[in-house]
Design goal:
The complex is a heterodimer of chains A (382) and B (425). With 382 residues, chain A is mostly helical. Helices cover 35% and strands 4% of the residues of chain A. The chains are: A mainly alpha (382), B alpha+beta (425).
Chain lengths: 382, 425
């Protein structure tokens, strides 16, 4: 696991050595690298850090402190970030906290599509975590004093938060514990409160049941989409690299290589709303407001020519009324009526007219991992 | 180390020595006649492990496999997905035997990486069309009656890359999205009854706590019939990648429905048409129609050895064909094996326990004359369904169905014993 004092030292040292005139403020932020590792999950969809880290959607983040903005090898940065680097922007505590909190506000035109970390403690923890992979760049001298200031703040925090224990009754004296509930056969469990149900029950059905009150226009959605979705799904929903395609593919379902998108394949708009709200943007789920989800859903419909008016406003009132072109083409499971499942006694001897011949070999394609110079195969796992 | 320990270590060392001598001899058989004339050094030399004691009991508090088994791991096919967070890896079926998959080798499929959940902060909620919406802690769940059941779990996309033809060389990759373990859990029925199901209810929506918040519509009848809310696999806690601390077990049905990190089950009167039952896990047919709610995994089998990653290395003579068969509709009644591409079939020997909706192990032993082989296996389940050929499936569904490919697999073995994934006429 992570060794706390060094990480913190690195943050402070980096801040002092590398930022001009803003070092003092850094001293107030006690970052806990262990907690920062959890914060980094929001970044991990796009960035790798640590041993063997490579560039992914975003550049690798090793030896970040002291690195010039736009300075990772072999990564295709936006012009905006390269220019910022050429203008003298170097990554340190100060520059990182501003950029990560609001990438586009800090470097207009950067292609990092990320909502930003807003919580100060999260930011401090995150930077402490990242600093741990910048060790070589940090001056070791200031380590001791700062590490002693707040010994093991991480552990202290953990001790202060045993709240979860109460749920298992451990802290409640035996005679004050609730008896069996008057529900069910066993009286186990407790009633869920309305607030709790509302926090988790966000599913939406095709008939609109479950939609929250709200709305958003195509134009609002365009903004959300460019900020939060386009880095993976592409400006037109075409899907960058192997990220999923969201638009197009109309009329391709009977083709040799069908393209299944919201417009060409999906049966219901409710599914777009439900899915984006529960899990997109990938790497930062549940960060969009209900209205933003309406807006970006409207925009995905616009990309698919399902709606054509930029002023179109999608809301809980009209979402269930919009029909997608492929809705009528879904049928019930009738696999077991296929001919080959008809009752039969399988043949045991002399079953073929002529000896079996090989008609196709996997080696021709050679897409198996570890087989040498494998390429990419066809098909998908979905 | 006490004397007793030393004795035990020696005893074990000796047996290990004999055993490895046998293996070594087999591996050498083709090569070194001289070594044999002078005596096999695996026997005539005193080995380190025969002289020096090994590590004590504190060295491996959670045991790990022998260092010589380091190749027995899950593997990924990097070109399949954009990155490894929403991706899949495959069970090394070619290295395993029996019917139980070791926990660390069960294939993984995540949609937003592995959620690392503190069980003290995990809750299971039952809401929707129930008399009393309830919340259970993990401790609460331990107070319900438990059951132990062995089931296979197969991803609907297992063998999906093979719809258009032979593509991947290894049964790990062609068939490795399946595993089989013993689950310990609470029948879902008890939890639903605890909350009280309202009349008119017909569907369930299980939901995961991970960043994909996975959801699937499951018919209420299935939930009442045999679903489990499981917390143990093969006796120990679920692995994080398998949904620790709680997952839904939906016997015989496609793996995506076995929601991991299970945190909520909603009861309703209609299905929800979630992304994973519309955009994905629906089967596009030739002609443009798409089957939905294709839940059952059909009867299927595969020869795990020999297979491309497990060639025949011993030359001609006595040869063991080993394989797996399973059906989401019940138990396996029979497996037939052919070595000539389907001209003649031989009924294989089923061995080990036979549980419905679990993997079954089969063997066929024969004398190999060193000529080319075209190996196939064909399973028949206790509902009378016979595993179809890939040609039959393509004729019925076209090449873009992706899911539910249970067609008969063909391996070509050449005179050297090397094995390739092929299709035959």
């Amino acid at each position: 696991m992570w060794k706390f004092p060094e990480g913190k030292a690195a943050v402070l040292a980096a801040a002092i050595v590398l930022s001009s005139g803003t070092a003092a403020s850094a001293q107030d932020d006690a970052g806990d690298a262990a907690a920062g590792e959890a914060v980094f999950r929001a970044c991990a969809a796009c960035h790798a850090v640590g041993e063997g880290a490579t560039n992914r959607v975003g550049p690798q983040l090793n030896a970040l402190f002291g690195r010039t903005a736009g300075g990772a090898d072999d990564y295709a940065y936006s012009d905006a970030l390269v220019e910022a680097g050429e203008g003298g922007m170097v990554w340190n505590h100060e520059t990182l906290s501003t950029y990560i909190a609001d990438p586009r506000g800090t470097v207009p035109g950067t292609k990092m599509a990320f909502g930003g970390i807003k919580d100060d403690q999260d930011m401090a923890d995150l930077l402490a975590y990242l600093a741990g992979f910048s060790e070589g760049d940090a001056a070791p001298d200031d380590a001791e004093a700062s590490a002693d200031d707040e010994p093991e703040s991480g552990d202290a925090a953990a001790e202060a938060a045993p709240a979860v224990e109460t749920e298992s009754n451990a802290a409640v004296p035996v005679d004050q514990r609730p008896g069996p509930g008057d529900h069910g056969n066993f009286g186990i469990g407790r009633p869920a409160s309305e607030e709790e149900i509302a926090a988790w029950d966000i599913d939406v059905r095709p008939d609109g049941k479950g939609l929250p009150v709200g709305s958003g226009t195509v134009l609002d959605g365009e903004q959300v989409y460019f900020d939060q979705c386009a880095t993976c799904h592409g400006d037109f929903g075409e899907g960058l690299g192997r990220w999923p395609v969201l638009a197009g593919g109309m009329g391709t379902l009977e083709d040799d290589r069908p393209e299944k998108t919201v417009g060409s394949f999906w049966p219901h708009v409710s599914t777009v709303y439900d899915y984006v709200r529960r899990t997109m943007p990938f790497g930062n789920a549940r960060s969009l407001s209900d209205d933003e989800v309406y807006a970006v859903t409207a925009y995905v419909l616009y990309l698919n020519d399902i709606v054509r008016d930029e002023e179109f406003e999608l809301s809980n009132e009209n979402l269930a009324d919009i029909e997608l072109p492929n809705a009528g083409n879904f049928i019930a499971d009738d696999r077991f009526e296929e001919d080959h499942y008809a009752e039969k006694d399988p043949c045991m001897s002399d079953c073929l007219d002529a000896p079996a011949e090989i008609t196709m070999r996997a080696q021709v394609l050679d897409v198996t991992p570890d087989s040498g110079d494998e390429g990419s195969g066809g098909g998908a796992i979905d | 180390m006490s004397d007793d320990d030393t004795m035990a270590a020696r005893g074990r060392g000796r047996r290990g020595f004999l055993k490895s001598g046998l293996l070594g001899g087999a591996a050498l058989a083709a090569g070194s006649l001289t070594a044999r004339a002078e005596g096999d050094p695996a026997i005539t030399e005193i080995k380190d492990w025969n002289r020096y004691p090994g590590e004590g009991v504190d060295a491996r508090p959670y045991g790990t496999p022998s260092q010589f088994e380091s190749e027995v791991v899950r593997r990924n096919v990097p070109w399949l997905t954009a990155e490894s967070i929403s991706s899949v890896n495959f069970t090394p079926l070619h290295e395993l035997d029996g019917i139980i998959t070791p926990n660390g080798l069960c294939f993984e499929r995540h949609h937003a990486g592995i959620a690392e959940i503190d069980p003290a902060e995990h809750r299971l909620m039952i809401n929707g069309m129930v008399d009393t919406p309830l919340v259970f802690t993990m401790a609460d769940l331990m107070r319900f009656p438990r059951e132990n059941r062995v089931y296979f779990l197969e991803c609907a996309a297992n063998s999906g890359m093979e719809w258009r033809g032979a593509q991947l060389n290894g049964c790990q990759f062609t068939h490795g999205m399946v595993h089989c373990v013993m689950y310990t859990g609470v029948p879902l029925k008890y939890l639903l009854e605890e909350a009280g199901i309202k009349s008119g209810a017909a569907w369930l929506l299980p939901e995961g706590a991970d960043a994909s918040a996975m959801t699937r519509s499951v018919p209420l009848d299935k939930g009442l019939e045999d679903c489990l809310v499981a917390f143990k696999m093969n006796g120990e806690a679920l692995r994080p990648e398998q949904g620790y601390p709680l997952r839904l077990v939906v016997p015989g049905w496609e793996g995506n429905m076995w929601v991991k990190w299970l945190r909520r089950i909603e009861v309703g009167d209609k299905p929800w048409a979630q992304r994973e039952e519309t955009s994905k896990y629906t089967d596009l047919l030739k002609g443009g129609k798409t089957r939905m709610h294709t839940w059952e995994m059909e009867v299927k089998s595969v020869i795990t050895s020999p297979s491309p990653q497990k060639p025949i290395v011993h030359g001609r003579g006595r040869t063991v064909i080993a394989g797996l068969a399973w059906s989401g509709l019940g138990a396996i009644d029979r497996v037939d094996v052919t070595i000539d591409g389907g001209m003649n079939w031989h009924t294989a020997r089923l061995d080990g326990p036979s549980f419905p909706k679990a993997l079954h192990r089969f063997y066929y032993e024969f004398d190999w004359d060193g000529s080319d082989l075209l190996l196939q296996s064909r399973a028949i389940d206790d509902q009378g369904y016979v595993q179809p050929t890939k040609q039959e499936l393509r004729a019925a569904r076209g090449p873009n169905s992706i899911y539910h490919n249970n067609g008969i697999q063909s391996w070509h073995v050449n005179a050297e014993g090397a094995v390739e994934n092929v299709e035959v006429s």
